[in-house]
Amino acid sequence: MNSEGAPRALEVQVRSADDVVIVTVHGEIDMASAPLLQAALDEVLRGTPPAVVVDMSNVGFLGSAGLSVLVAASEAAGSGGLRVVPSDAARRPIELTALDQLLRVFGTVEEALAVDDTPPPR
One of this protein's Pfam families, by short name (predicted)? Predict the structure, then answer.
């Protein structure tokens, strides 16, 4: 919520860092705004990037609809996986629902980008 008490509209931005796609999310993810995040992640995943980082460090609220979007995107992302960087407000529901056991959660975007999922050569 902003200082006037109104919910912040959801903003989603997509950029690339090398071969990793970073989806930056600002605002609140609830039943009304979750479809916007779902559409953005679906579009990104159509390109089959090796990894997707979802930067939620500026998310003020993460509801059950948003959690469902993250689970679906994680399943669709495959082996490279979805790397989630939650704000404190987003981390709490992820941990309370034990989705931190399913999702790959990181403290910062830099940590998420530093992961090397490349299999070693044979």
Answer: STAS
**What does the alpha-carbon distance between residue 75 and residue 10 come to, in Å, rounded to a whole number?**
23
Per-residue pLDDT averaged across 53-71, rounded? 97
Q: For the purposes of burial, counting CB atoms within 10 Å of the CB of 63, is it exposed (0-12), middle (13-18) or buried (19 or more)?
A: middle
pTM summary value:
0.87
52-71: average pLDDT: 97
Residue 89: pLDDT band with limits 50, 70, 90: very high
The pLDDT of 76-91, averaged and rounded, is 91
> Three-state SS string across the chain, please?
CCCCCCCCCCEEEEEEECCEEEEEEEEEECCCCHHHHHHHHHHHHHCCCCEEEEEEEEEEEECHHHHHHHHHHHHHHCCCCEEEEECHHHHHHHHHCCHHHCCEECCCHHHHHHCCCCCCCC
